[in-house]
Structure formats: C-alpha cells, structure tokens
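BUG: 3D viewer hangs when loading the predicted structure for this chain

Environment: internal workstation, default settings.
Expected: structure renders.
Actual: progress bar stalls at 90%.

Input used:
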Amino acid sequence: MRIVLVSIVLCGFSSASLAVDPPAGFTPLFNGKDLTGWHGMPHFDPYKLAAMKPEDREAQIAKWTEDAKKHWTVQGDELVNDGHGAYLATDVAYGDMELLIEYKTVAKADSGIYLRATPQVQIWDYTKEGGKWNIGADKGSGGLWNNSAGAAGKDPLVLADKPFGEWNAFRIIQVGERTTIYLNGKLVVDHARLENFWDKQRKPRTFEPLLKNAPIQLQTHGGEIRWRNIFVREIPSTEANEILRKKGADGFNDVFDGKTLENWAGATANYEVNDGAIGCKAGKGGVLHTKEQFADFVARVEYKLPPGGNNGLAIRYPGKGDPAYAGMCEIQVLDDTASKYAKLDPRQYNGSAYGMTAVHRGYLRPTGEWNFMEVTVKGPTIRVELNGNQVLDTDLSKVTEYMANSPHPGKDNASGHFGFCGHGYAVMFRNVQVKKLESK
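Structure tokens produced before the viewer hung:
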C-alpha cells in the first residue's frame, strides 16, 4: 500500500539560505526559507491514513499542518520546533534512501526521526540528569528505540552524542527495513531491521512489513530542537543489492562460481551461464539443484524476471519429483505484477511458500531489475526477505490447509538440495550463496 499525500506549503517564515550546498547526489529537504515540501503529521498510523477517503485524508493533513504552523519556525538556516505540535513530514514518500541531517537540542528533551512514517531513530538527553537512564538513555541517541527488547538496533552500539549546545550529525542508510545509522561519524546501528511499530500495536499482531514508501518525519517531544542541513539521496536498486549482499556476509559460500554449472545437477541442459548469471532457457524448465544437500541454512540470491516470468527456489529438495510438493517447499519467484496472474491464490505469489503460506506483496522490483532475496530455513520455519523487507515468516509444521487441498508430503524434510524450479521462462539468477546453520 503506497501512501498518497497532498502537498501543503507552510508560508510566512523568514527568508534564509542553505547553510551548505548538498553533497553530490543529494537533494535538500529543507530549502532554508520556508517549509515547502513538508506537512504536519503527528504520531499516527500511516495505514489508517492511507485507508481514508482522499478528501478526508486531505482535510486531516490540512488540520495537522495548521497546528504545525504554530510550533515550527525558520530562524536563519535552522528549522526550529518549540517542543510541541504536530511533527513535520515530507510530502514525498521515500523508500531506499540515505539521509543526512544535523540537530541540536536541549537538556531533558526527547525527540526522534521516523523512517517510512515509523518510529523511530531516538534522540534524547543521555545524561543522568535527564531522568531516563531507566529506559536506555544512558546508551545515547541513534538507536531504533521502538524495536523489541533485545532486538538488534534497539540500543546504539556506542554513546556518540555531543554535549548540549553542539550540533549532532546523523547519516542514515535504509534499504528495505534494514537500517544503518552513524551519529557524529560513529556507527550506532549496523544493518538492523526497523520493526513495524504499527503492526506490533495490532491485536492480534498480523505480521506486516514496513510500507515500501512513506514519509520521513521529524518528531516533536517536549523540548526545543533545531534541525539544519537536511539532505536525502534515493538509493538505486543496484546499490541496494550490493549493500544487502555485503552486510552480514560472514559464513556465506558461493555455490555458483559465475562461470559454470560444475556444482549443480538436475536439468543442467535446460539452463545456461551468461555474464555471471544462471539463466533458465526460454521454453525449458525443470529443477537445477546443488549437488550438496543442506539442513538448516540461509540462502542469498539475486534474480531478474522477464515480463510474466515464473520460477522458484527449491528448498530441501530430494532430487526428484515436483519441488513444491516433494521438497520442503518452493519459494515462488514470479512477476506477480503481470495481468495474467491477477487472480492467483495468495499462496502463489512472489515470495510465498507455494501452496501453503501467502506472502506480503508489493516489494518486487520492476521487471528487468535485479531483486535480492534471502531465505532462512531453520527446522520447520522459513523466513524470506525480499529487497530488505521481511515478507514471509512461516512455520510449515503448523500449516493444515493447502491450495486445492493438495498434500505436501515433503514439507517435513529435514534436509535436501537447494535449487531453481524452471517453468519455461528466461529467469536469471546470480550471486548465489548459502550459509549453513547449526541444526538443533
């Protein structure tokens, strides 16, 4: 679901100019004169906002923006909030991006930055006098404070705040739900998932990924905060894939050498290697699988779909039979934007455990672009991240209803081959890696 926002300009602020020119490739979000490009939006569920009728949504945003006018001013080259009122949100909804922003706040203040309209990169008083050491303020700013207790990213890796009265600088890199944060040049969050706060509030929880695109918000929270030098750069898919592939690469081994099918078996005649990628020949199919078998593992692969393309990842495949049924499962690889697939069963779309568990859709890149998929298999559980977004989290041992009532006798396989399930389309795969996990 993509959030559609109206563009509202806040007028009447003093004229100024940018403090510094944007770095190469970056665009300023604050023009140094007024709040063009921003609107008011408090702590509010973006899914509920998106579900409103357009006229109701526009009226609500206008009301929030009127409130923001009372509490936000431009002073010189600084964007200043008095600690109250609606937050500021960008009119543009951002996906993968790099954000540069500086802030200066006061003692006992508490603020933050919402990414994809989701809380939050924490900013607060890190001193004992601030009165919040009991909830983690002693660890400093920059953590993903609304992540679950003990989750990666919730607490910053180091204390990096500067003393009050000095400017602090964030560099935030977000690819899918994966967030990396530098505060004053120090790494404080390393490629951690920003959990979906809004999903955690639902009862029962529905497991919803972050919105693919949503605004950046600057929070107000009881104390003056000043912002300046706010720049953003949208990250292209090729760079996003490189970030995802390099992070956490320890323990992964290449199962495809980029040149031959030496370590592969099965339908080798129906696949070919071109430009460092394995391609299923058009009009051909069958299962191409590793010679090696795996029990618990993590697989990483990039794939590119032609229009209407269809393939899949064979998980714990025994070496014969249909991997969707004889194997633990087939993770679907499909151009599910094609009109001919509009009426499929939800358990057939890209990233689903075919015929068993539906996927959260909307995170596939356009045909012709490379997608990055990571599949974690532990015991009966499978988790799928697509382009950095967790889109499937299932325990197949608990699945009792199957598409077309077709049994899946292989779903309890404890080990098997990893591979590709060709269905006649020229789907391509590259950077195929597997990391073995210790089985319990």
